Amino acid sequence: MSIVTELLQLLELEKLEVNIYRGQNRDLGTGRVFGGQVFAQALVAARRTVDEPREAHSVHGYFLRSGDLKAPIVYFVDRPRDGGTFTSRRVTAIQHGEAIFQLSASFHIEEPGLDHQVPMPQVQDPDSIRPELEQVREHAAILPPELRTVLTQDRPIDFRSPQSHLPGGPSAGEPERYVWFRVIDALPDDPIVHQAILAYASDYGFLPTALFPHGIRYGDPRMFLASLDHTLWMHRPFRADEWLLYVMDSPNAFGSRGFVRGQVFTRSGQLVASVAQEGLLRLKK
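and the corresponding structure tokens:
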């Protein structure tokens, strides 16, 4: 089974009852459920209850507890509103009788309207950048042992950045990051597949952007990082199996919390999504 097929199966939830779905976990080697996985699965559960051709435009999630990799996650969907052009859904993710995540999503029919956007930054083309996975495997010997398995395993998504953020590289810098990404195989045309994969990928390496000004890298044993909330707005249609540019920056960190923002562009420069997250940046004593 290919690594992309595994990702698609992760998003193919099992229907248990009306408005109730069950999802499995993929172990990324961190010892806990990846936040992007729960975010994406909850979005899929919400979309399963929307009968009309309406796609998500606004998705807000709160991470309440760490997920247990050994137990499936059950998603309960509430249907607060089915309007003429907008549909609202709320999803609660449950493990061991407790809520670990809550999501609110709004879906909108396709209709014409005003059209403007900010320009895409000038960034090195992805074809001229080596895949992140290649670079990580090349420097596997300098990786902390607890991160080596996590960072060197096969990935369904190809990430490429013109900036080096490998452990052992330059640490201090501006709180910004540019990453190209795309799924390595062709995907089905269903829009929810592409939206869910964007939701999944949007949590990858996002919060560590807030560490750059402090000379701290992801995996530093002094730090405990955890996502607190995550918001994704989707503006235009896109495909997750074509190159997307993730532009990230962190305007603030204070009180053991960091705030990060993101914009996602197609290779041709269309702004297709905006992202925001606040996370815990706890410096251990």
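(Above: one complete record from the training split.) The chain has five helices and twelve strands.
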